[in-house]
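Q&A FORM
Asked by: J.P.
Topic: structure of Esterase family protein

PROVIDED:
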Amino acid sequence: MANVRAGWLVLALLFGALFSGPALAFQTRIVSIPSAAMHRAFDATVVLPADYARGKAARFPVIYVLHGSGGNYADWTSNTHIGKLADRYHVILVMPDGGHESWYIDSPYDPRSRYETYVGTEVVSYVDTHFRTLATRETRAITGLSMGGFGALRIALDRRDTFGAAGSISGAVDPRNCEDEPGISDVFGDPARHASFWNSNAIVESARAFEHAHIALTIDCGVSDFFVQSNRMLHEKLVELGVPHDYAERPGGHDWNYWSNSIRYQVLFFSTSFQRGGWHPQTA
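REPLIED BY: S.T.
REPLY: Here is the structure written out as tokens.
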């Protein structure tokens, strides 16, 4: 009789495992975020960690992840497993739409292109209002790939009270190398007539601005990437200036194979930065 009861117990446990609901995992939401600066709304992807649904009081750090030229808000979730990182590190991930060729700047030559204000101010305000975030610079980071890497560093430098950490993946840190890219002169102006604007916005020329920005900084690029030389130049300038930062070159080129690997290291870096600022994921 004891063996029979044990058999039924095993079967019950097996059926329970088979038919019980799946374990909680991250949630992906598409939201529409309005821009007063551009008089329209844009979609954005928000990934909430599993912990978000377990409690109604816990608040979470936020990492903003920007797409590259020609991309959109869905690129990261369509091409990588970035959502799993929200669960692993207990963070909210936000992927806003930055337009096809905005370079995430407020263009003085196209008044309709105000993407630095949109991403750096309006998106942040919306996310802090609509989700349970830890709304401090110490628990807020921004990164991106290619054009988005440029945009992330530019926005972080211009909004030091907003972002305490920033990164760049395969970043176009010197847009002067991209003069022939279709659409770039619409936002930067003619390279010859507006050279001063191009120069002042190039991240490689803004290295000194990081000296007193107190931004936790991580930069990486593939060794076969056409942007690797400009990234090395930025790294060397930061070293000369004594600016603390992480820098890495890994095998790979300018493609999703590289970016999907790189983002794992960057989210780990940001999580560590948040913890140094006093946040502990076990309390989330």
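FOLLOW-UP: The domain at 23-283 is CATH 3.40.50.1820 (Rossmann fold).
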